[in-house]
């Protein structure tokens, strides 16, 4: 198991073996996704979007119009 220590500023250094596995380096971004109470998954944002397939599982079906509306709503928040 690979571990890291949190500094007083809330920062950690990602161990080199993890950086290598995620193919991330200085300036790359990572995202923390809540999976359960007290459990997160960290993913490299630099990954190919195809690797995200299957990450979100839902029975909800949206129309193209609903998807476009959601995209516009999110874009207006940026």
Descriptive notes:
The protein is α+β, with helices and mostly antiparallel strands. The protein has one domain. Helix content is 27%, strand content 17%. It is built from 2 helices and 2 strands, in the order αββα. It has helices at residues 16-22, 64-77; strands at residues 30-36, 39-44. It has a two-stranded antiparallel ribbon with strand order 1-2. A hairpin with a 2-residue loop joins β1 and β2. The longest helix is centred in the C-terminal third of the chain and has 14 residues, at 64-77. It starts with 15 loop residues before the first helix and ends with a helix. The model has no long low-confidence stretch (mean pLDDT 87).
In short:
The protein is of the alpha+beta class and 78 residues long.
Rounded mean pLDDT score:
87
Number of extended strands: 2
What proportion of the residues is helical, as a percent range?
A: 25-40%
Radius of gyration of CA atoms, rounded to a whole number: 17 Å
SSE string, helices as H and strands as E: HEEH
Q: How many H/I helices?
A: 2
Distance between the termini: 38 Å
Helix/sheet category: alpha+beta
Shape: elongated
State the domain count.
1
> Which regions are unreliable across 5 or more consecutive residues at pLDDT < 50?
none
Strand order in space, largest sheet: 1-2
Instruction: Bin the strand percentage.
Output: 15-25%
Largest sheet: 2 strands, antiparallel
């Amino acid at each position: 198991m690979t571990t890291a220590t949190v500094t007083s500023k809330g920062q950690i250094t990602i161990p080199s073996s993890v950086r290598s596995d995620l193919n991330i380096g200085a300036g790359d971004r990572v995202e923390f996704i809540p999976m359960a109470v007290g459990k997160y998954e960290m993913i490299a944002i630099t990954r190919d979007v195809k690797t995200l397939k299957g990450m979100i599982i839902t029975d909800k079906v949206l129309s193209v119009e609903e998807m476009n509306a959601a995209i516009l709503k999110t874009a207006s928040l940026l």
